[in-house]
Amino acid sequence: MKDATLRREILEELELVPSIDAANIGVSVEDGIATLTGHVAASAQKQAIGKTVNRVSGVHGIVMEIEVRPIGEHLDADDEIAKRAIEALRWIDSVPKDTIRVEAEHGILTLTGQAGWSYEKAAAERAVQKVSGVKEVINLIKVTSAVSHTNVRMSIETALRKDAASEAKGIHISIDDHSVTLTGSVRTKAERDTARRAVWAVPGVSNVVDGLTVEP
What we know:
By secondary structure, the chain is of the alpha/beta class. The chain has helices spanning 3-15, 43-54, 78-90, 118-129, 149-161, 189-200, and strands at residues 25-30, 33-40, 61-68, 100-105, 108-115, 136-139, 142-143, 171-176, 179-186, 207-214. Strands 4, 5, 6 and 7 form a four-stranded mixed beta sheet that branches. Helix 5 (149-161) crosses helix 6 (189-200). It is elongated.
């Protein structure tokens, strides 16, 4: 019997047993050896699964990797945390779809993948920080857009132009990969804040170093 056929028969057999909740059970088969993964709420279910699979014709052996999680304890399991984090990301319009990966280990969530804008990277981190069971977020999402000196300068000038008394002549810009450093002087703290926000709005910027001084 082919492994794929045997796997299907095992899944069908598990679905027929009322005492087994097969929703969280994974089955893989190789050379007639069935590997069972996932979790159940009680050890009795785990035993029932083993007996059920063992009586399926064609099964030569069983590798039991099912975890017993009493009701309530599963809420902080890493796979459950990861599922909730993925769902949280789906609901955020400013987070790119299908380019961000989530890994959970001991409640620590790691985000990897790509984003075109720094605000998308930040939005993803904010979204998963609110997920139940998350103890820490490591944000390794890469901002892929190249940072243009012209775009940074134009963004700052456009932002400051809204205030007729403000200007960007005293601001100097240096770019290292996706990091932008601002030096020089502005006349007010508001101008400095405006310049910093303008840089964050530029595609590809993942870090802003504010070295501006306020000189009225």
